[in-house]
């Protein structure tokens, strides 16, 4: 089973390496089939953590590896979905999904087929010829997901991909994300500021505290798997265990005592 591993990772931006690190001694392991969410206050290093996993920045200390091999840059094994959809608005939905495959030298017929397959998976089969500027925010994020998944990555890295969506669209996206995660067999790493989203979706939630960014709390959950096994999402989200978990994680984010404990 493939896994993306951060071992004792610290990060200083800039060459001087002065002051507190942005991340300090962070270790986590994301195996395929796992769904890890990272929550924490603004500035706690969540995006930096994702950038390390993506290979966009290199650690100042420690190691980032995939199956034991050092990560030296971005790669098709690790697809990224950003908060701002980062699509080409003037191109068609299909081209947005197919373009990264083209850049990797994949032939036109395969590109078209993969684009069709993943656009259908995110419910956009009837929108393939539209331009991105004609889509709603939720539809754009679904194009971003289809694009990421069309590369059949081993790991799907997402930085607050649902942050700009309204509450109803977000709830629908949660269910879609879980189905796509199951179907793709990818390991998912999700940065989110929604504690509820983290508890519902994840097999494991990590809380970062700021200055220096470090892991102060971890917990495992089964709600997402239970949803995929057919349980009702609203019933799951109103279970006492769900509500307790949400409160515990909020406390871990905001309470100094817990943070230092
Ligand atoms: N490219 C960068 N250069 C210098 N400092 C940065 C850079 N990116 C982020 N930072 C700093 O690192 C800290 C953590 O930022 P970030 O990882 O974006 O946190 P989060 O996503 O949790 O809000 C912040 O203090 C931020 O100002
Ligand atoms: Mg961020």
List the helices and strands and how they pair.
Elements: E1 3-11, E2 23-31, E3 35-40, H1 46-54, E4 61-66, E5 69-70, E6 78-81, H2 93-103, H3 108-121, H4 137-150, E7 155-159, H5 167-184, E8 187-191, H6 195-201, E9 204-209, E10 214-220, H7 223-228, H8 233-237, H9 240-254, H10 256-260
Parallel strand pairs: 3-8, 3-9, 6-7, 7-8
Antiparallel strand pairs: 1-2, 1-4, 4-5, 9-10
Helix pairs in contact: 2-3, 2-4, 3-4, 6-9
Notes on the structure:
α2 (93-103) crosses α3, α2 (93-103) runs parallel beside α4 and α3 crosses α4. The chain folds into 2 domains: 26-77 and 153-261, 3-Layer(aba) Sandwich (Rossmann fold); 88-152, no CATH class. It has helices at 46-54, 93-103, 108-121, 137-150, 167-184, 195-201, 223-228, 233-237, 240-254, 256-260, and strands at 3-11, 23-31, 35-40, 61-66, 69-70, 78-81, 155-159, 187-191, 204-209, 214-220. It has a 6-stranded mixed β-sheet with strand order 6-7-8-3-9-10, with helices on both faces. Helices cover 40% and strands 23% of the residues. β9 (204-209) and β10 form a beta hairpin. The longest helix has 18 residues, at 167-184. The chain starts with a strand and ends with a helix. The radius of gyration is 18 Å and the shape is globular. It has 261 residues and is α/β, with parallel strands linked by helices. Magnesium ion is lined by residues 46-47. This is ATP-binding cassette domain-containing protein. Residues 4-235 form the ABC transporter domain.
């Amino acid at each position: 089973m493939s896994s993306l591993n951060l071992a004792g990772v610290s990060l200083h931006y800039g060459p001087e390496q002065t002051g507190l690190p942005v991340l300090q001694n962070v270790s986590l392991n994301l195996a395929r089939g796992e769904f890890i969410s990272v929550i924490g206050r603004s500035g706690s290093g969540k995006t930096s953590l994702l950038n390390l996993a993506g290979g966009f920045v290199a650690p100042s200390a420690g190691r980032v590896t995939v199956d034991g091999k050092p990560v030296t840059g971005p790669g098709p094994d690790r697809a990224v979905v950003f908060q701002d959809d980062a699509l080409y608005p003037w191109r068609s939905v299909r081209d947005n999904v197919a373009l990264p495959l083209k850049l990797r030298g994949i032939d036109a017929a395969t590109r078209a087929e993969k684009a069709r397959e993943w656009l259908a998976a995110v419910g956009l089969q009837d929108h393939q010829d539209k331009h991105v500027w004609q889509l709603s925010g939720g539809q754009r994020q679904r194009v971003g997901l289809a694009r990421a998944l069309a590369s059949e990555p081993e790991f799907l890295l997402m930085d607050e991909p649902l942050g700009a969506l309204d509450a109803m669209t977000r709830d629908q996206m949660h269910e879609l994300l879980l189905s796509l995660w199951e179907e793709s067999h990818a390991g998912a790493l999700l940065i989110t500021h929604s504690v509820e989203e983290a508890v519902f979706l994840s097999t494991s939630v990590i809380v970062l505290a700021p200055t220096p960014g470090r892991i102060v709390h971890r917990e495992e959950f089964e709600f997402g798997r239970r949803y995929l096994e057919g349980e009702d999402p609203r019933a799951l989200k109103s279970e006492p265990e769900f509500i307790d978990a949400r409160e515990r994680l909020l406390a871990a984010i905001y309470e100094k005592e817990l943070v230092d404990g």
